Amino acid sequence: MKALLRKFSEWFYEKSKNNLVLLLLMAVFLSFNAFVFPYFTKLYGLQDHALLDLQFGFTPEFAHAVLAGYGEYGRQGMMLFTGIVDTVYPLVYGSFLALLISRFKIKSNASSNNFKIINLIPFIAVLFDFLENTGILIMIQYYPQQMIPIAWGTSVAGMFKWIFLGCSVLILLFFLIKSLIHWRKGKSKNKSVN
What is the tens place of the pLDDT at every residue in 69-122? Predict the structure, then answer.
């Protein structure tokens, strides 16, 4: 398993050197946020409703009330959205964050092998996102029955998703700042040599 994780991590380090890959993933990421999500929420009349996977934790009662508020058409839309679109999106944001972390870790000259697979932290968030989506799909499938253990599990998975997304952003910011410091030091060295 360790060898597989190292290979996966190395793949991201290698791909992060390619500007085209980064730009393509950024375009897909931004397209989801600017066009795909607004289109689906408007199509199914959900733009004024809470979305469970945007919550940092919720109670089973809250989840049931949200699903009730969607109405039958909204629940069908959420089933389609969660089952298709929100299955692809975590892979997009996970890959994008992993590539950015890889890119700035390389640029920061942080070559420690101890934390080489730190670029895979976003995929822990992706795993919890998939668990959260599965829970949401189950709750919609069995609505109006209240799935209390499933709702709690879905809520916990969502909280862990947000925690690991936050950790990923902090790691990215750390390596971004470190790479800026490394770049600045290199620039000042070049000035003193000239």
Answer: 999 999 999 999 999 999 999 999 999 999 999 999 999 877 666 688 999 999
Cα separations in angstroms, 51 against 11, 14, 34, 105, 168 = 34, 36, 17, 34, 22
Q: In the chain, which ranges are continuous DSSP H helix? A: 2-15, 19-31, 37-43, 60-80, 86-107, 121-141, 148-193
Nearest to 150 by CA among 159, 158, 141, 139: 139
Contact at 8 Å (CB) between 121 and 164?
A: yes
Q: CA of 28: how far to CAs of 32, 84, 92, 107, 150, in Å?
A: 6, 15, 7, 24, 31
Domain boundaries, the chain: 2-183
CA distance linking residue 127 with residue 124, whole number of Å: 5
CA distances from 165 to 29, 97, 189 (A): 15, 9, 36
